[in-house]
């Protein structure tokens, strides 16, 4: 890569560029069309990092960013927050359409894709995007392009407004299924584990959650028609079934002590 002066690691710079393209919902085919190159050429350029400064600048412009910002992201100088403020969550919780739009943008959908699939068009779309911009969740660019101001792997506050308002409803709807389809899986295990094993299990679940986010980021460059919304619930806590609690001998050992988990 032909870059002037000291800059970020080239591979990190390419990764930052790919993330920027995904945030705009731009597929390789769309980028290839705008650069008047074949889709295979774009894939080779981005996978091998073999592109000229002119090509890098052109790709950055298509992604709605610039070389300086890409370099900052590649060097870790610009770290997007991974948690929303209480005020930001409160605003999203109060307006379902605003929350939906934000969720879809973070998931890698472009504004045009969202407008085509949902009733978020015209003035309504413009006003919602402007609100997200004022809240500091996105940067609204010309032609209704957006740049996220929050990390894609952000986490909702466990006791925040969004979970308080929608958490129970989401969980009820998610679990209201027989989980017997080809793309479903439900396993529920209740075992007695040591404190060390509980900690190992907790870390494994955390890693699996991170892998779900990584897969979503990789697939974000695919057209929306080739992606499906999938819910993944990961949970563990000290727990004893109420039936066992009711039948427990009054003279037996206490239940619910550390080490009982599900």
TrEMBL record:
InterPro entries: Cro/C1-type_HTH (IPR001387), Lambda_DNA-bd_dom_sf (IPR010982)
Keyword Coiled coil part of the UniProt annotation: yes
Record keyword Nucleus present: no
Coiled-coil regions listed in the entry: 191-218
Domain annotation HTH cro/C1-type: ranges: 17-70
Keywords carried by this UniProt record: Coiled coil
Name of the protein in its database record: HTH cro/C1-type domain-containing protein
Organism: Cognatilysobacter xinjiangensis
